[in-house]
Amino acid sequence: MPLILLTNDDGIASPGLAALRQAISPLGQVVIVAPDRDNSAVSHSLTMNRPLRVTKIEESVHTLDGTPTDCVAIALDKILKKRPDLLISGINSGPNLGDDISYSGTVSAAVEGTMYSIPSMAISLAGELPYDFTQAGRVAARLAAMILARGLPENTLMNVNVPGNTAIAGTRVTRQGRRLWENSIQETFDPRGRRYYWIGGGTPVRDTGRDTDVHAILSGFISITPIHLDQTNHEGIFHLRDDWRLEGEDLTDPDTCG
Known about the structure:
This protein has helices spanning 15-24, 68-79, 105-115, 134-150, 213-218, 234-243; strands at 3-7, 29-35, 54-58, 61-64, 86-93, 120-125, 156-162, 170-173, 179-182, 185-189, 195-199, 203-206, 221-228. By secondary structure, it is α/β, with parallel strands linked by helices. It has one domain (3-177, 208-232): Survival protein SurE-like phosphatase/nucleotidase (Stationary-phase Survival Protein Sure Homolog, Chain: A), CATH 3.40.1210.10. Helix 2 runs parallel beside helix 3.
């Protein structure tokens, strides 16, 4: 029976995690190790400045006072008796598209699993409140069964976004698009007149590419994006080495500056 590790960044009490557990349980033995609270936008951070504590909620369900990446690391090294056959992170409340995946704790948990050569998937539900995770749970179960049967390319995780509050038009395999935000830092004042800032909100500046995750979700399609651990711009290697002629350059010599 396959061993499947579940985690998320919305916390152990997230309805998305509960829906994922229900959908995935028929496929194998499910173990949950999730943060004890919301850890959205913590990216791939590890907690290294304080001790971490695991609390067993019930059999095969644990919570940790740390980040999603902490959860995966401790699950693999201390909680699980053997290596899981699959790691799934989610179901996240809200999409993880374009540039947002750089901040995403959901995606970063899947990155951590992939670093240890465990087939890993991050799944998120787009749309607006109230979230209905039923369709996303079905998508997760279908893709999980395919990954267990076929595997994933080496050093590659699957980032899945499912449309919410709309009929699903189909499925597209996409590339990561761009999704920056305008006016995402709010400046206001507390009751004593002191200025403070709140990061969040704003207006998304969407990628116009039709083959992107952003466009797929806006068009009502499930987006499946293969994300590779190697973030090297391989074309950039030739640019810096041949055009800039950096290879072999003595960058410590003051006479070569400028």
